[in-house]
Amino acid sequence: MLNDVEKEALSLVFWKTIRIFVCKLTSIMTNYNIIGREHEQAVIRSYIDSGKSELIAVYGRRRVGKTYLVKSIFHNDFDFSFIPCSH
User: How far apart are CA 65 and CA 41, in angstroms?
Assistant: First the structure.
């Protein structure tokens, strides 16, 4: 059986480990190094640089990196996004 001091020490170690894990995971998830997709990136960047209001719709098969592509180009800095849910 653990005494109160041992419980407190174990708790501190646990939360420190969780904090380190979350920091590393956040760093991985926000480091958008995209490989390939040069054509798609160029098309989206041309709309961004056009100087006009543009609507960009990204569509395609499931699990091919559409959201990752958009997040990598905009660095998660967009005012509106819509991801429909199918039932």
Answer: 12
